[in-house]
Structures are given as structure tokens and as C-alpha cells.
Design a protein that fits this description.
The protein has 489 residues and is an alpha/beta fold. It has helices spanning 11-20, 27-37, 52-64, 83-96, 113-122, 131-139, 156-161, 165-174, 190-199, 211-214, 230-248, 262-274, 288-300, 310-313, 333-340, 361-371, 384-387, 408-411, 416-419, 424-430, 449-457, 480-483; strands at 42-45, 76-79, 104-107, 126-129, 150-153, 180-185, 204-207, 218-224, 255-258, 279-282, 305-308, 323-326, 350-356, 377-378. It has 22 helices and 14 strands. α2 packs parallel to α3 (52-64) and α3 (52-64) crosses α4 (83-96). The chain binds adenosine monophosphate (AMP).
């Protein structure tokens, strides 16, 4: 088996790796590093958790070992989709470059420009940035990208999700075409394929098996909750979650609990805190310094329950997480894999428990299709509100008005309307609460907002698409409900 010492890395890097406690390269490291050191472009199709960060950081440091940075002209550029991921790459760099004299700057939103400006003015070897912030600096004339020898694009699929691809293309265009490129993506969507065909030159393509198929250390469980009215479902889930946390007892050392929407992250976090559980939220709308502090507390073991959205938590590396909960089943099945991959890391065992209500059936099917096996069903611990009326422990989000919301009276239309088969066709047209309901995950994304809103307003309560927003004098479209029979089954 390949050892790090076989990889012709700079001895200073090898020393740092040894101190970090790693002896054997992971598959992506073993395969990518030799190509990277030869100066070849690398296309890594791999997810977080595979050791991909070190697979580009180690050769990058080795390659930059010789030479010096010039003022305002970084010698290398690492682009990551979120602040947390960029900060994590910066941490990796600090670990592996500790015996070198290489310098770095981190350009992310929420961190003051001044300090980073000074570093860049002096000249940095490695510039780690989110695309928007990098372009801000560039446009302010603070930065030249013509000295970039190596460019890394990390988590390109997430960049695509977040609408950053035009920024990435622009940044590619600002760097010299002679640069070496390392490009990482968990999936190869056609748009990603196009970018790699355009900007990579004869890359070594390295594909690492999906984490879900590889990680057998994670015990998965699905808790199916019964049908309730929509408002009650969230309360029921909160109650079920508390009951499960209690039932897990000491086995639950810490947990990341995923929600699909930022508003739900806040509500759940408040609700758990109110029930004397040690919980804090993390999502894209929170102040960066608070996000950083919350994460540090969680990493240090000073916070037990981290309530998170996908974007904020994606790729975060907390080595020891005993449990992951899906408070909501994710609407994109790949997110299920990303989420549960936060536990069971580095050979440790972990437990992933997902809650679902009947309306999530479609998401469950997508997940099971991706995993190619059914999720093992678990049994919900005794839940009081199933016996009595649901408790009220947290504010319920007010339904947002959308284009589909035709009148305030209809906003308040009783839930039961949609649940009785006869009333359903009517409710499908007027019931706007459901229009605002489907989960949204691309919270930091700037561009696709309109698309997302449009997308949301075209889905009904169960996430099914329909075209009710397009019902303007019918046009050439016949809505579903007109084709439906009104007989009671
Ligand atoms: P990444 O895929 O870059 O997010 O890395 C996932 C985790 O694997 C991080 O905690 C790394 O510190 C760890 N790691 C990276 N390389 C190795 C290695 N060769 N052996 C063991 N763990 C590693």
C-alpha cells in the first residue's frame, strides 16, 4: 500500500502529515497527488470525507515551496462555495504548511476587508476565497490574478447549486491559461462537465466511490410519523426528536440536526433550548462571527446539538459526531448522503436517524433509490401528542404570501380542506400555504433565487409539480384538477 513517504512530497509537508497522525494516504490522495506533483490538471470526483482537501493542499504546498509571492499577486487560488469550507481549507493549509514559510489569506464574507487587504498587499502564496468575495476584491483593484500558478475549485457541484458558475468562469478567465488546475466535484452535472472541458487541460480524472456505499459504520434509521395537519407535523416532529434524544441517552454524545429551511433551524433550536437541551443554530443568515463561534463550541464539545441547514453545514469536518438527525428529509437525495456522512467518520460508528411524515414519501423514495436499499425503519418512542392534542412549544412560521396567494381569507383556509379528497381540487388552486412550504436549501445562493421562488410556487403540498401559477386564461394548458374525476373512491 502506498505510504505518504512514497509520494515525493516536500519533506516539510511529510513532517507535518506525520504530526497530524496520518500514515497512509486515502485513495483520492494516493491517486491525485502523483499527477498533481507532475504538474497535471486533476479532476477529482469525490465527496467530502474522502480526504480530498489534503489531496490538493499537500501537492499545492509542495509545488509552491520554491519561489516567492509578489505584492497583490497571489501564486495560487483556492475557491470554495461557503465561508465555512473556505475556513476549513485554510485550517488544513495551516496544519500542513506549518514547517514552510508560505503565507495565506482568507477572503470570505463576514470578515473585515482591512486585515486581508494588508496581507494581499504584501503578497500571499495561497489565497483561499469564496467566489463573490474574491471578485469584490478584484473589482476594488486590490488584487491581480495574473500570477496564479495553481487554481483549485472545491465542491463545484455546490457552486453550481448556489449559482456561482458564472463567477467561476469569470475567475478562470482572469488567471493565466498556463496555470495548473485542481477541480473537485461530488457529481458531474452537464454544466460541470462543460466547465471542466473548457478550463481543464487533459486532466487526470479520479473518481472515488460515493460515501453512502462505502461507509458501513453508520447505522441508519427512519422514524415514520403519522399524518397530521401541517402545523401539527412540525410540533410532532419536535416532540419525536426530543423523545428520541432522551431514549438515546448517553449514547448520544453530540448531534447535528438538519432542517431544510433556515426558519425551521431557528424554531427548532429555540424549542430545544426551551426544553433545556443544549442546542444552537447555524445557517446562512446568521452573523459570520456567531457561526464561527457556534462551530468552535461544537467542535470543542461545548455544545451538544448543532441545528443546521445544508449549506451552512456542508463539508464541515467535525471528526467526532455520534448522531445525525434529519428533522426534515432532504428534498435532494444527495444531501441525505452528505448529511449522514457527518457521523461515522474515520472508522468510528455513528447513527443517523431521519424523521418523516407521509408528505415526505417522494423524498424517501428518491433517497432509497440513490442508496439502492430501503432505510431501516425504527420505532418512535412514546409520543404524548399522538394520544392527546399536540403541544405548543414554539412559534409556527407564518405562511408567506406568494404569487399563488390570491386572498388573505384563502391564506387562512382551514387545513382540512386539503385533506378531504372532495375538497382537494378546490384547495389546490387556492391554498397558498402549501405553495410556500417545499424545502429550500440553496440559502446562500444569489442568482437562482427567482428560479427557486418560481420552483416553489409550482409545487403543491407533497412537493408535486403543478402549473397553477400559469393558469392565466388557461392558454394551451389544462390544469390537473379539470381532468380529475370528482367521484369519492
Ligand atoms: P476531507 O474529505 O478533506 O473533508 O477530509 C476528511 C477527514 O479526513 C478530515 O478530518 C481529515 O483530517 C481526514 N484525513 C485526511 N487525510 C487523511 C488520511 N490520510 N488519513 C486519515 N484521515 C485523513
Amino acid at each position: 500500500m502506498t505510504q505518504f513517504s512514497d509520494l515525493r512530497l516536500d519533506p516539510k509537508v511529510l513532517k507535518a502529515i506525520e504530526e497530524a497522525g496520518y500514515t497512509t494516504p486515502t485513495p483520492i490522495q494516493a491517486q491525485a497527488i502523483p499527477h498533481a506533483l507532475e504538474g497535471r490538471d486533476v479532476l477529482g470526483i469525490a465527496q467530502t470525507g474522502t480526504g480530498k482537501t489534503a489531496s490538493f493542499t499537500l501537492p499545492l504546498i509542495t509545488r509552491l515551496g520554491r519561489g516567492r509571492a509578489r505584492a497583490r499577486m497571489p501564486r495560487s487560488l483556492v475557491l470554495a462555495p461557503t465561508r465555512e469550507l473556505a475556513a476549513q481549507v485554510a485550517e488544513n493549509f495551516d496544519t500542513y504548511a506549518k514547517y514552510t514559510r508560505l503565507t495565506k489569506a482568507l477572503l470570505i464574507g463576514g470578515v473585515a476587508f482591512g486585515e486581508q487587504d494588508k496581507l494581499i498587499d504584501r503578497g500571499v502564496d495561497v489565497l483561499i476565497a469564496t467566489p463573490g468575495r474574491l471578485l469584490d476584491h478584484f473589482e476594488r483593484g486590490k488584487l491581480l490574478l495574473t500570477g496564479v500558478e495553481v487554481m483549485v475549485v472545491d465542491e463545484a457541484d455546490r457552486m453550481l447549486d448556489m449559482g456561482f458558475i458564472p463567477d467561476i468562469e469569470r475567475i478562470f478567465g482572469l488567471t493565466p491559461f498556463t496555470r495548473q488546475t485542481f477541480f473537485y466535484s461530488a457529481t458531474m452535472a452537464p454544466e460541470i462537465e462543460r466547465i471542466t472541458n473548457t478550463f481543464l487541460s487533459n486532466p487526470a480524472r479520479i473518481e472515488i466511490a460515493r460515501q453512502a456505499t462505502a461507509s458501513e459504520t453508520i447505522t441508519q434509521e427512519l422514524i415514520e410519523l403519522p399524518a397530521t395537519k401541517r402545523d401539527a407535523a412540525a410540533k410532532l416532529k419536535r416532540e419525536a426528536l426530543r423523545a428520541i434524544i432522551e431514549a438515546e441517552g448517553d449514547k448520544l454524545e453530540n448531534a447535528i440536526i438538519f432542517c431544510n429551511r433556515k426558519v425551521e433551524v431557528d424554531i427548532l433550536s429555540k424549542s430545544l433550548s426551551k426544553h433545556k437541551l443544549d442546542a444552537a443554530p447555524i445557517h446562512g443568515d446568521l452573523d459570520q462571527s456567531l457561526r464561527t463561534r457556534t462551530l468552535e463550541r461544537f467542535r470543542a464539545g461545548d455544545l451538544k446539538l448543532l441545528i443546521a441547514s445544508d449549506v451552512a453545514a456542508r463539508g464541515l469536518d467535525v471528526p467526532s459526531v455520534s448522531h445525525v438527525f434529519n428533522f426534515d428529509l432532504p428534498s435532494h437525495p444527495e444531501d441525505y448522503v452528505h448529511r449522514i456522512g457527518r457521523t461515522g467518520r474515520a472508522g468510528r460508528s455513528g447513527k443517523a436517524i431521519s424523521l418523516m411524515v407521509p408528505a415526505d414519501q417522494k423524498y424517501l423514495e428518491q433517497i432509497e433509490q440513490l442508496l439502492q436499499r430501503p432505510l431501516p425503519r425504527g420505532i418512535a418512542p412514546g409520543i404524548e401528542s399522538l394520544k392527546t392534542a399536540p403541544e405548543s412549544d414554539a412559534p409556527t412560521p407564518r405562511p408567506k404570501r406568494t404569487r399563488g396567494a390570491r386572498s388573505a381569507a384563502k391564506v387562512d383556509a382551514p387545513e382540512t380542506q386539503v385533506e378531504t379528497p372532495l375538497a382537494e381540487p378546490v384547495a389546490q388552486i387556492v391554498e397558498p400555504v402549501a405553495l410556500a412550504e417545499p424545502p429550500v436549501r440553496r440559502e446562500d445562493a444569489p442568482a437562482p433565487r427567482e428560479r427557486r421562488d418560481a420552483d416553489r410556487s409550482n409545487r403543491d403540498r407533497s412537493g408535486r409539480r403543478d402549473n397553477r401559477d400559469n393558469i392565466v386564461g388557461m392558454g394551451d394548458h389544462v390544469p390537473d384538477f379539470l381532468l380529475r374525476e370528482f367521484r369519492v373512491a
